[in-house]
Amino acid sequence: MRNRDLALLLDLLHRPTAPFREQQVTDFVTTTLRDTDVPHFIDPVGNIVVGCGSIQAYRKLLRVRTSEPLRLFMAHMDHPGFHGARWLAADQLRVQWHGGAPTRRLRGTRVWLADSEGKRFEGRLKSARLRRDGRTIDKADIQLTTRITRPRPEASMLYGGLRFRAPVWRSGKRLYTQVADDLIGVFAILVTAMHTRRRHGYARNAFLGLLTRAEEVGFVGAIGHFALGWLGRASRPVICVSLETSRTLANAVIGKGPVVRLGDRRTVFDPGALNVLSQVAQRELPGRHQRRIMDGGACEATAATAFGFTAVGISVPLGNYHNQGFEGGPDCRGPEAPAPEFVHLSDVEGLLALCRGLLRPNLPWNRPWEKERMRYQKLLRDHKKLI
User: Fold this and answer.
1) Which one of 54, 70, 278, 311 is CB 3.0 to 4.6 Å from 304, fit for a cystine?
2) Band of the pLDDT at 152, cuts 50, 70, 90?
């Protein structure tokens, strides 16, 4: 990975985020896009649309008369975390958790907190109550270890998540971080947008990025964008490409390349578009990509499918999904206990390669199975005399 891209990734992974509290990521992304002259705007839901500078430009891109599909790359800016609910004492805060979470050895776990301006504080989980299904945290009480000067902020202005030795650190080609899911996908769209901006002609008319809010509580940002109805009025085909950082599973190994995601926990994805993606992966990353139904969770490709759009997915295998100690490692407090997420830089590099490859012109979107059909017809001819 180029040093400039790695520096961008590390800077992004330092940003605090939680469902509905993505403002620090939003500010970082929009500043980066502005500094690199990439057009963008904020939709009515608060998502960032990348590649168009206004709603009018967005609609114009959708009206381009071509059989070539618009590739809508999607990633979310949030990560499971909590919102402040109410002060219990001068240094104790009750919080409401949003999204997945570890469920064991929670007492004493370090947390970070931030306010709307990005000012940070620290604390520890004093107690935590799980939801009825036992799969994640419902509410928790936090003992602040950072002194808050008066005037004390309103409890609802604070948000946070689990804290480890640093927001991000590197060990060989592994990146350990408080938040990989899905800032890795956000990074991929940023780099792809900047790469596309430097090109002329075709790629600009093929690319669109959508950086969404509140995916961790049910694809809220993506659903809000689809519900606007803009994409439904497109005059050209639209292919939604979900970029995710997904829980590592059998046959999806960290360090062996990005995963052509055949489906998620809810559904399989479009077979024709997946075959094109597989062809791109074979050309761009021969022997360095994987294929699997990544059913450890659901992703925004499911939301796109539900709204009638053709959808595929690419995943970077993720260790310690949602900060749960499935794979262990440094700062892990035990199985299913708090742990930093981690990814492999080679997998992230592969994700960038697949994004670039999907923007190549003249991919067989209208005839995704032509090669297979020709091969099958030859098999029939070769065996016809035996029928």
Assistant:
1) 311
2) confident
Output phi, psi for 238, to 5 deg. Answer: -125, 125
Q: Kindly report the number of other CB atoms within 10 A of residue 118's CB atom.
A: 12
Other beta carbons within 10 angstroms of residue 111's beta carbon come to 23
* pLDDT in the model for residue 119: 84
**Within its chain, how far is the Cα of 134 from the centroid?**
25
In the block, tokens 């805060």 appear at 93
Number of Cβ within a 10 Å radius of residue 279? 15
What are the φ and ψ backbone dihedral angles of 7, each rounded to 5 degrees?
Answer: -60, -40
Among candidates 44, 356, 107, 71, which has minimal Cα distance to 239? 71
Alpha carbon separation from 79 to 1, 13, 210, 342 (Å, rounded): 24, 11, 16, 14
H helices then E strands: how many in the chain? 10, 17
Contact present, 26 and 212 (Cβ < 8 Å): no
Nearest to 316 by CA among 374, 263, 371, 254: 254
Strand partners, 168: 177
Three-state SS at 89: strand
Query: Cβ contacts of residue 220 below 8 Å, gap of 6+?
Result: 19, 20, 45, 213, 214
In terms of Cα–Cα distance, which of 216, 52, 32, 277 is closest to 42?
A: 52
H helix intervals, the chain: 3-13, 23-35, 55-62, 183-198, 202-206, 220-227, 271-284, 300-306, 345-358, 370-383
User: How many of the other CB atoms lie within 10 Å of CB of 361?
Assistant: 10
Question: Rg (Cα) of the chain, in Å, rounded?
Answer: 22
The values of phi and psi at residue 59, to 5°, are: -65, -35
Q: How far apart are CA 366 and CA 176, in angstroms?
A: 41
Site of tokens 């959708």: 62
For residues 283 and 230, give the distance between their C-alpha atoms in angstroms, rounded to a whole number.
33
Tokens of 63: 């009206």
Task: Compute the distance between CA of residue 261 and CA of residue 248 in angstroms, rounded to an integer.
Answer: 12
Tell if the pTM clears 0.85, that is, is over it: yes
Edge-to-edge strand order for the sheet containing 174-177? 168-171, 174-177, 341-344
Q: Name, in order, each residue with C-beta under 8 angstroms of 98's C-beta and a sequence gap of 6 or more.
A: 18, 19, 20, 80, 81, 82, 83, 216, 217
Q: What is the pLDDT of residues 153-178, one digit of tens each?
A: 999 999 999 999 999 999 999 999 99
Provide the β-strand partners of residue 124.
Answer: 110, 143
- The DSSP letter of residue 308 is T
